[in-house]
Amino acid sequence: MTISILLHSPTDAAGGFADGFLLERCSNIGLDARAFLENNDSYNLLSATKDIFKTGLTATNVMDIQIVLIHPNR
User: DSSP characters for 17-42?
Assistant: First the structure.
């Protein structure tokens, strides 16, 4: 799972979640993930798959946080 939190985003989203099942969720609802990627439009893709992360104003000085979890047995 990758979590990217961009608190200085021009949108109301703090980031989003992407895991090994994101493409399957896209396919299940008829979305072409590649088209969103080519259009640099993760906001609408992750909104449609319910993987968008919205915190609202946090009033902190944190800018970018990226967390990557790797399971070596998978």
Answer: EE-TTHHHHHHHTT--HHHHHHTT-H
pTM (whole model) above 0.70: no
Rounded to 5 degrees, what are φ and ψ at 20? -65, -10
Task: Please choose, from the candidates 71, 61, 70, the residue with its C-alpha nearest in 3D space to the C-alpha of residue 7.
Answer: 61
Task: Tell me how far CA of residue 3 lies from CA of 29, 30, 36, 52, in angstroms.
Answer: 22, 24, 18, 10
Contact 45, 26 (CB under 8 A): yes
Q: How far is the C-alpha of 6 from the C-alpha of 2, rounded, in Å?
A: 13
Q: Tell me, what's the pLDDT at 15? A: 80
Residues in a beta bridge with 4: 16, 66
